[in-house]
Amino acid sequence: MAEQMSNSKIGGEDDFALEAVPEHARMPWSSILNVTMGIVGAMIFMQLGGEMALTYGSVDAILAMVYATAMNAVLAIILAFFAAKTGLNAGLLTRGTGYGFVGAALTSLLYASNFIVLAATEGSIMSHAVHTYLPSIPLWLIMLILGAGIIPLSLYGMKQINKFQRYSLPVYIVLLISGIVVALHKKASTADHWLTFSPHGQMMGGAALLTCIGIFNGIIGGQTLLTADYARFIKLKEIRFAPFIIGFVPQLGSYLIMGMVGIWFAVRFAQSDPGVYMVFVLGVGGALYTVLTQLRINLINIYSGSLGLANFFGRIFKFTPGRVFWVIVTAGIAVVAMLSNIIAHIGVVLTFQGVSMFAWTASVLADLLVVKKLLKIGPSHVEYRRGHLRDWNPVGPIALLVGSAVGLILAISHVGTIASSISAFIAGGIAFVLHIVLAAVTKGKYYVVSGVKNGERRLDENETPVEGY
């Protein structure tokens, strides 16, 4: 059976791509935090912070970072709690929160594509940094080598990722601090007022601030859903405090702390690309820093992307070769995207994914917080098992599609306006409200197959329902 076969062991470790993580396989909160802290090293946060400061001014960039930290933390903490309580990843949570079996499968493909794009973006930054230091090596060859190099590190799931993140963290910190110390001794005319830097003629606040917020909205949805993939490993005895730590600390480090570091470097050297200024500051050490940071974040991107592909093909086509296969496929697609220069079109790509991921997040949270908790519509638990679910539940997919469509229209047809800047937020708001309305109208009759209530009917003696929360 696809549900059971997909739970393949990779190097002795269960990946639990298509079922709940059992208590015996869960990890201490400190180990999970160690893994998620790999997100903090993503160059995209340093680069975005620098670009915003150079384009709109440091104050607007910092205000947008504070917003993103708070908004993403709130959403991530909530989803982390439900993921820990149920042991389910984002894809499996989606099944039982108004999408049905096939409906959730389609969101898994969206989920996988999001992290493949992020992996390609981070990989491109890493490759350009190495090429800056070693221009004699063709860029395409560097992309192939670095893209293939991430595969062995991604094969063994959470335990292997935890080890790599733990042992690479001290090196990462030493290189970052070294870069800051060396940069302090390089002359820069704008160094003394980097916190208040503003481009000539740029007004603070207004459309500029909303534009910065809009850029971060394109990341918040995906980063929230990503939290579920790791929070599901939280031990039940740690559920009172661990979701707060797992949901908040990575956001604080990503948006605010590394964003501020990005502003400091960008204003100092009038350059927003960390792959360029780190090599300028540290030489080979800067290239090593860039490669290391990208390996840390791309382990997470490849892991989550492989889970999404495994869910999609396992559900729709009953093709379950195991996550090792999907790790290789995910990394391969990311390399192709890198070679296709996806980074040159990243704005358009992230606009689409940012709007849709925000709408998806809002839809799932609407079901968990309002439909199940307050309105008591449908089963009280999150049902994810194939034999208990309808193939389609119109509630989630319609909310997602309508919210995404409105958000995309605003983003594409009103480029440069306030409407475009908050398009992801609008998409999320529409999806949230519409999901609740549709669940009420349909009275929850599409959540499970006829006769199944709160896990009373079982598909297989080895399966267990995720109890109510």
Detailed description of the structure:
The chain is an all-alpha fold. It has 16 helices and 2 strands. A two-stranded antiparallel sheet has the order 1-2. The protein is globular, with a radius of gyration of 22 Å.
Overview in brief:
The protein is mainly α. Helices cover 69% and strands 1% of the residues.
Question: Which features characterize this protein?
Answer:
disordered N terminus; 16 helices; mainly alpha; disordered C terminus; globular; two-stranded antiparallel ribbon
Give the helix/strand layout.
Elements: H1 2-5, E1 9-10, E2 13-14, H2 29-36, H3 43-56, H4 58-86, H5 90-133, H6 139-154, H7 157-184, H8 207-231, H9 242-269, H10 274-282, H11 284-316, H12 323-339, H13 346-371, H14 395-413, H15 418-421, H16 423-442
Give the uncertain stretches in residue-range form.
Answer: 1-13, 454-469
Strand fraction = under 5%
Instruction: Encode the helix/strand succession as letters.
Output: HEEHHHHHHHHHHHHHHH
Give the strand line-up of the largest sheet.
Answer: 1-2
Quaternary form? single chain
* General form: globular
Helix % is 55-70%
C-alpha termini separation: 28 Å
Per DSSP, the total helix count is 16
Mean pLDDT, nearest integer? 84
